[in-house]
Amino acid sequence: MQQLLTILINGVTSGMIYAAFALALVLIWRSTRIVNFAQAPMAMVTTYIALVVIDAGYSYWVGFGAALVCGFVLGAAVERLVVRYVDNSRPMNPVILTLGLFIILHALAALVFGNQFRSFPAPFGLTGQQIGGMDVAITGFDLFKIVAVLVVLGLLVLLFRFTDLGLKMRASAFQPEVARLLGVRVGRMLTLGWALAAVVGSVAGLLIAGGSLVHPGYMDSIVVFGFVAAVLGGLESPGGAVVGGLVMGLGLSAVSGYLGQSLVAFAALVILILVLLLRPSGLFAQTAARKV
């Protein structure tokens, strides 16, 4: 019973991490129609910026805010200075570009911040709770992760369903020519999509880093798990990203707890293959996938 409870709690908390990263992928897909594999190193860079601020003597929350602001600026700069000049006639071109950015940002982070492991603080306690005489492996920071991801989900739903800005962003991504004819500043909407996605990615990076060690590659595995979670839920659905993250978290936690940590990556690959074979548009997809 104790082991099952621990597996479930670990699954929910890690699933929320995957969900946070999947939300960033969903946001940039819905607003620009690009799968950004550079999302992880971008979040890693902003996490290091937060660590620099905290090490300078400022509070965790000042560092948290600095990371979000820098994430917004970094996302906008990447779109304005790099992505905008890529030939979009072939959908693979931007994807290849983001893979290149993945490598470049890794290398730059190693040069600027170093390759050594560094401890990142957490704003809340990292000790488990005791409920009814039973040790429960959920910490104050775990609860913060859950709340933070749910808040991000709520904000994204509000943005895309109930605001004119969200409608303009989606129109710019789906039908840029028609959107321009209707007076929408498509370039600004695409820049805003990248900027907001980088902010959500920064949140994911901070949640992963809290109370653990960071280095330039600390988010690499999240690229795989977060991408599978986004595909599982459907790249069009923020709610699906959260559900997909939870499914991934619980599934991989069960594999790790009962079969061994060495099979976690294999299990994630199996889940991705099954989703692509059985329901390639995702569990919660509402629109047909674009055909090339």
Describe the protein's architecture and organization:
- The chain is mostly helical and 292 residues long.
- It has one domain (2-219).
- Helix content is 71%, strand content 3%.
- The protein is built from eleven helices and four strands; from the N terminus they run ααααβββααααβααα.
- The strands form two sheets. A two-stranded antiparallel ribbon has the order 1-4.
- α1 runs parallel beside α5 (140-162).
- It is globular, with a radius of gyration of 19 Å.
- Mean pLDDT is 86; it is low at 288-292.
Question: What are the key terms here?
Answer:
11 helices, two-stranded antiparallel ribbon, transmembrane helix, transport, disordered C terminus, globular, transmembrane, mainly alpha, amino-acid transport, membrane, 292 residues
* Strand neighbour order, sheet with most strands: 1-4
End-to-end distance: 50 Å
* Number of discrete domains: 1
Quote the average pLDDT: 86
Strand percentage lies at under 5%
Instruction: Please state the CA-atom Rg, rounded to the nearest Å.
Output: 19 Å
Low-confidence stretches: 288-292
Class based on secondary structure composition and strand pairing: mainly alpha
Number of strands: 4
Main beta sheet: 2 strands, antiparallel
Q: Total number of helical segments?
A: 11
User: What order do the SSEs take from the amino end to the carboxyl end, as H and E?
Assistant: HHHHEEEHHHHEHHH
Helix content: over 70%
GO molecular function, one term: transmembrane transporter activity
Protein name: Branched-chain amino acid transport system permease protein
Subcellular location: Cell membrane
Family: Belongs to the binding-protein-dependent transport system permease family. LivHM subfamily.
